[in-house]
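Continuing the batch. This is chain 6 of the set; chains 1 through 5 are on the previous pages. Same settings as before, nothing changed between runs. Recording input and output for traceability.
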Amino acid sequence: MGRVLIDGYNLAMAKGTGIATYARNLCEEVSGLGHDVSVLYGQRIAEDDDPLLREIAFFDPVEPPKDRFRKVMRAIRSGARSPFDLTPRELDLSGKVVPRAFAGRLPRAKRLFNGEDLFHRANAGFAIGRGFSQVHMPSDVDLAHWTYPLPIEVKGAVNIYTMHDLVPLRLPYTTLDNKRAYLKLVKQITDRADHIVTVSECSKRDIIDLLGVPEDRITNTYQSVALPDDVLKFSDEEVARIVEGGFGVGYRDYYLFWGSIEPKKNIHRMIEGYLGSGVEAPLVIVGAQAWKSEEELRLVPDNTAQGKQRIIQLSYCPQGTLLNLIRGAKAALFPSLYEGFGLPALEAMTLGTPVIGSNTGSLPEVIGEAGLQVDPYNSKDIANAFAQMDSDDALRGELTKKGRVQAELFCPSAYRKRLDALYGKLL
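Output for chain 6:
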């Protein structure tokens, strides 16, 4: 068994991301294989503070300042420090700060480390031409698994990088990334990495075709989903009371989308399709507004019928509440223009909720024959899927059964076997 380091770049984000879920599941399964797992954070915790203050700072949800001038000055200061001098310290979580509220977010790991502003400093150093930063860990590391494209490595260890997708290159008009800088970074990662990991055959093909990486240097492990037991214990009747009392929607009588409100997610065509379908059940949209969200949601404010709100928008739901919303939905919607994997679709199928998803990107791999596939560029096609799902009880029942079977292909045990084969080859 090996000593494995996994980055906490996305794990530190207060509201979490799909990549944070990926990192948590990775920690869980790699630990389950018997490896000694450590997680490396890069939060703004002063290295010279006493242990109690460092523990307090680790759980402090205060975000870095968003003032533009202060952000620029911080980047200059970070870039001025040597990006190669990254020596984290172990975090001693004594339990003096009550961690129970973070129980669902903390990864399964033997040790946690933090390097002050580590990831920001590495990115700033790369941006001004200083290349990759090297992390000097206080203890030996056999393999470092970076779950996000980061210009960073552990010297003397096997360094592998997960590339979930190449959306900034495949659909450049859907993201705000600096495409020149992004291409430079991912090319250098593929040149320096001991191995590239990805999460679908679609993404694997993109990495080969766009970046010229030999097929034998890439492994597709797919993903898995592990749902908390405390959510699954609710009966259907209890879920019905939660969604009806909390959101004013009927059990199995609303449609649900969750994810960032951004161009890639194709929200505006989903709304057009919904409005053109004639279905009466409400559409619930859960997601933080991101770039161009106003355009994506431009049809929402004017859509009320006889005083009843047809489209309900929520900016955020805690994980437990969201999982109950998924369980209570008539169907889940994922009309994305492109996805590297499509973890929400897997979550829906695991929970027995029928899925309407795109026929592009990786979603056909995840959904298979267990959902309705639509052309994401055709709002009429999306409308027809709404109408078909809404009117056919037998179809929904069939898709619920097929979805649970399809989800088993990506269950934790299957994911663990794929990781075991990968790590066994590299260690």
